[in-house]
Write a structure and sequence with these properties.
Helices cover 43% and strands 17% of the residues. By secondary structure, the chain is an alpha/beta fold. The protein folds into two domains: 16-45 and 282-378, Aspartate Aminotransferase, domain 1, CATH 3.90.1150; 52-279, Aspartate Aminotransferase, domain 2 (3-Layer(aba) Sandwich). A hairpin with a 2-residue loop joins β2 (29-32) and β3. The protein binds pyridoxal-5'-phosphate (PLP). Residues 103-105, 108, 128, 130, 169, 173, 198, 200-201, 229, 231, 239 line the site of pyridoxal-5'-phosphate (PLP).
Length: 383
């Protein structure tokens, strides 16, 4: 393959991507490519990535456990602190058990491969790439239903080889809308399908921090498998799957993305435990209150500029402009105005729906949100 010609083609389509180094810790303001900017790009919704108590817990974790786990969990890397964290995460999700993974991407690959070895996996069209990649790796065949279209899904369910697995994001990562979980769980029950919800963006934020399943008034009996990450609202890195004791035991025994990889550094689990303590405390409730206030302010402003705002109250607010080159041009002008609001283009989102993906945090001030809105208004006619 002629990589250089292919890279040139990406550039011509406005799809070329490159890395921009950040200096210092994550927060509402960061130094991005050497320039101080307002940060409307991160998934650090509660500001826990640099919260003093979380950082302190990681320091203490390093003192106790050293740097690395030394091996995979099943060899000699099974630090006891992982079990404490797994118990807490299972309780957060109201599930019998949970197991950690090193990242959400890895968890979804491992999960789909292990839990859907045969039959058919039905995926929402806007599911995260890791669920789609996991479904491709799994023994079951992948079928895609239109985004949030329960009629389409219901029509597909009788037609394909069983057993059926339905996999959906709880909060869609590029659109910020919610999956219709009550209807999904009803359909899953009727058709004896296994329902898997990836709650990367709901965990810590929605449903008193317990996630989108709890926010929808559902429980682990309605959604048997809940995946979540430690790298978004919880501020760190890693992921988990919560489910029945048998499902989790099956993952430990067969999930290749669990078995054939070095365990995460134990200090990360210490940090995640401290983050969970905050999520479940009064301070967590206050942070979620500030996040909701900030989200409302930003959503109102974006709506006034004439862009559609998704329901559901999540901190992800897409400003869809359509053309990839235009999204990049607007994002560049915003950056020049000191605001980081990244352009998201195909293949991350469908053709013709390029956008700025704006995320809001509990730690933004009203003035910072107003600054973003003013910059966005000033860039509306960029091309
Ligand atoms: C971010 C994300 C993932 C991947 O999680 P990482 O821990 O970043 O690998 C999986 N699913 C969804 C919906 C996500 O938004």
């Amino acid at each position: 393959m002629d990589f250089s010609a292919q890279l040139d083609a990406l550039k011509a389509q406005g799809r070329y991507r490159s890395l921009t180094p950040v200096d210092g810790a994550q927060g509402a303001e960061i130094v991005f490519g050497g320039q101080p900017v307002l940060n409307f790009a991160s998934n650090n919704y509660l500001g826990l990535a640099a919260h003093p108590r979380v950082v302190e817990a990681v320091h203490r974790g390093l003192d106790e456990w050293g740097f690395g786990a030394g091996a995979a969990r099943l060899i000699c890397g099974d630090a006891r602190v992982f079990h404490r964290l797994e118990e807490r995460l299972a309780a957060l999700k109201g599930a019998q058990a949970a197991v950690l993974f090193n990242s959400g991407y890895q968890a979804n690959l491992a999960l789909m491969q292990a839990l859907a070895p045969e039959g058919t996996i039905l995926c929402d069209r806007l599911n995260h790439a890791s669920l789609i990649d996991g479904a491709r790796l799994a023994g079951a065949s992948l079928k895609v239903y239109r985004h949030g279209d329960m009629g389409h899904l219901a029509g597909m369910m009788g037609r394909y080889r069983t057993p059926l697995t339905i996999a959906t994001d709880g909060v869609f990562s590029m659109d910020g809308d919610l999956a219709p979980l009550a209807e999904l769980s009803k359909l899953a029950r009727e058709h004896h399908a296994l329902l898997i919800v990836d709650d990367a963006h709901g965990t810590g934020v929605l449903g008193d921090g317990r996630g989108s399943v709890h926010a929808a008034g559902l429980s682990a009996s309605d959604v048997p498998v809940q995946m979540g990450t430690l790298g978004k609202a919880l501020g760190g890195s890693g992921a988990f799957v919560a489910g029945s004791r048998e499902q989790i035991d099956w993952l430990v025994n067969t999930a290749r993305g669990f078995i054939f990889t070095t365990a995460m550094p134990p200090a990360l689990a210490c940090g995640a435990l401290a983050a969970l303590d905050i999520v479940e405390s009064d301070e967590g409730a206050v942070l979620r209150g500030q996040l909701a206030e900030n989200r409302a302010r930003l959503a109102a402003g974006i709506g006034q500029l004439g862009y559609a705002v998704p329901d559901g109250g999540t901190p992800i607010l897409p400003v869809v402009v359509g053309d990839a080159a235009r999204a990049v041009a607007i994002s560049k002008r915003m950056l020049a105005a000191g605001v980081l609001a990244p352009a998201v283009r195909p293949p991350t989102v469908p053709e013709g729906t390029s956008r700025l993906r704006i995320t809001v945090m509990a730690t933004h001030t009203a003035a910072q949100i107003d600054h973003l809105l003013a910059a966005l208004e000033g860039c509306r006619d960029a091309s």
